[in-house]
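User: Can you help me understand a structure? I only have the sequence.
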Amino acid sequence: MDRDEIEARLPAIIGFAELGEFLDYPVRTYSSGMALRLGFAIAAHMDSEIFLVDEVLAVGDQYFQRKCVRKIEEFLELGRTIVLVSHDLHAIRSLCDDALWLDQGQVRAMGPAREVVEQYLDLDRQRAASRGHTSAWPVPSAPEATLPSPSAAPRFLTTADDPELRRAIMAACAMPDAAARWAEHTPTQSFETYDGERPVIIGSGEVRVLDTQLLDRHGQPRQRFRTGESLVVAVTFRTTTPVERPILGVALHRNDDVYVFGPNTRFDGVLDGTYHGIYTYFIHYPRLPLLSGRYLVSVAVFDKSHLKPHVWHNRLYEFEVAQDVEDHGLVRLEHAWGLITHVEGDGARVELTDRTR
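Assistant: Let's start by predicting it. Here is the structure, written out as tokens:
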């Protein structure tokens, strides 16, 4: 680019990098994430037909990674070529048509991206088996479920074997107007809502959250729980187009931004398939171990690469926890106390008194 082109594109580059006051600092003082932001921003605003991306999705925060993915998708829609160098198998499967697997400089496989990734995973499983333990990679997905007609009775799937819990959740999440809601036209369009610099509700638009509830084990809405009680987070959502292998998640933060726990269906290997309809996914914490405090709940449905949120409600729901006994910290861990007396002198007297029972 000549100087005029650089000056014309500079505002867009600066805006994309979002380095703020650090933009004028010497590049040698940048962290790897800051250098990545600047480098990707410059490359993304050039008119190249071939875009070489080396591990860009392995550095930086998730917010910037999602920006990079959106930019890469824009390049692909324009018919440009992306060469992605990465160890991120999910990014390779979701962004690439073809893949080349290099192992110590030797070509191990080349072909359609999904097939090459599966060959890589097969080798990893074999290596894990030879070491005598199970591979941590996800197992192949179950066959995709067929979508029931709007008039069909709701189906209930859960990993918890608790009929009482099932009845309570089904009653709390009943949706008699589901067929009418499904018949409503909902366009697929992205949305973003921010509180200052913090994203509150963002998404690419393929999924819309209709309702989120915090329930006790009886299906009653609650905002206040006690340590050790049961908590259910139930999220009702609809799709605007078929969504392949989405990742459903719930995250808990304390209100001072301490990250508590953030499981999702990909990590746990459940509820895999193609979604198109209205659903309620829920997570059940049978014995809430949290100590006294206020907590924030985030709910999200991410794309299969776990890089782009179809919908993300960031710390939008709040509940409070109280406890009966004095404790300090974040969670109450199951524990037991004991004492071994080896020698005891006159006047000694020690008794076991369990106030937690």
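Now, to help you interpret it: The chain is about 25% helix and 30% strand. The domain at 163-322 is CATH 2.70.50.60 (Coagulation Factor XIII; Chain A, domain 1). Let me know which part you'd like to focus on.
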